[in-house]
Amino acid sequence: MRGGWSVSSLLHPLSPAPSPWGGEGSELDAASPPPPGGRDRERGSPPRTRLLPILLLVAALLAPPVLAVQPDEVLPDPALEARAREISRELRCLVCQNQSIDDSNAGLARDLRIVVRERLVAGDSDDGVRAFVVARYGDYVLLRPPFNPATWALWLGPPLIVLVAGIAVAVWLRRRPTALTAAAPLTEAERARLDRLVRGDGV
Amino acid sequence: MRRLLLILPLGLFVVLTIAFGAQLIRGRDPAKLPSALIDRPAPQFALPALSQAKPGFSTADLRGQVTLVNVFASWCAPCIVEHPVITRLAREERIPVIAINYKDRPEDAVAWLARMGDPFARIGVDPEGRAAIEWGVYGVPETFVVDAEGRIRHRHVGPLSPREAAETIVPLVRQLQRRAGVS
What we know:
The complex is a heterodimer. Among the domains of chain A are: 71-141, Helicase, Ruva Protein, domain 3 (Orthogonal Bundle); 151-199. Chain A is built from 8 helices and no strands. Chain A has helices at 7-14, 27-31, 47-62, 78-88, 107-121, 126-137, 152-181, 188-199. In chain A, α4 (78-88) packs across α5 and α5 packs across α6 (126-137). The termini of chain A are far apart. By secondary structure, chain B is of the alpha/beta class. Chain B is built from 5 helices and 7 strands; from the N terminus they run αβββαβαβαββα. Chain B has helices at residues 2-26, 77-91, 106-116, 130-134, 162-182, and strands spanning 46-47, 57-58, 67-72, 97-102, 122-126, 142-146, 152-157. In chain B, strands 5-4-3-6-7 form a 5-stranded mixed beta sheet. In chain B, strands 1-2 form a two-stranded antiparallel ribbon. The interface between A and B is medium-sized, with 19 and 23 residues.
């Protein structure tokens, strides 16, 4: 449950997994109609190899989004189910820690999704469900941390930094133009020399 | 003023070094979470027994003496690492240890205990992991110290090392036992 030893990560380096797309006999090859002439593969750029990336792209774009929520978890009442999805998007999966339980495939995430739905069916309010989970797992389970003494630095830090930086920039900008306008006007000699330069008389 | 600005990066570096160094030396793993249940009564639940040999347990069984509650599973590799430490706490330190068998097949758990030794006073099975959710468990193994009034006083996430058992668990249990004896 904890740790990263998934079966696929163990198997991958050991067994050269056959690519589902590779090889002569792949399903995609079999499904696509044979190209006209049939011997394109031996010539320069066979249409079949050009077709494959396009088909892959289309398949990737048409594929439905992958959901962690399993069909057997979904509540029959769409309104309750929508609330359940809303709540689970805001609850952290404690195994993966940076995913919500709505996104995570971990066993505990599934258990918590089911608990959330059970509480809703039992008539809990959204806040009631959140309070139920927080009572067991702490504020950490909320992806949107609450505002309390432990999180003051978290919530107030960024605005504070922007404020301090804004003041620093304001002070700096205020100082700079006075330095420019304070430059002394040209003296008579300088003005005469400038005139000569502009006329092109040489220095 | 200008000189101050020149020193600023060095100052920031020193501050960050101290901050990171302190975190490193304290050795706290930020991924391990404190329990929301510390100092709160253990959750209400009742678990059936794993086998005929030992009773299951419910919240009421936690009252009257200081207890360790160990969440384990036969499929959990760190549990194998931890088991000798738990066994020692039970057999040599005479601390009653109650087990929650988490999401396991009973026959697997029985075989695992036959192989590894069974130091537990009671074993409750939690096939769906529902009691574990009540305890705020998010992975196995986890170990809780429950005082004589049935309140959770300490939580350890992950395998218990001999050092943590000797330096944290045993002193805490002794302290709680003394307090329970006095009152």
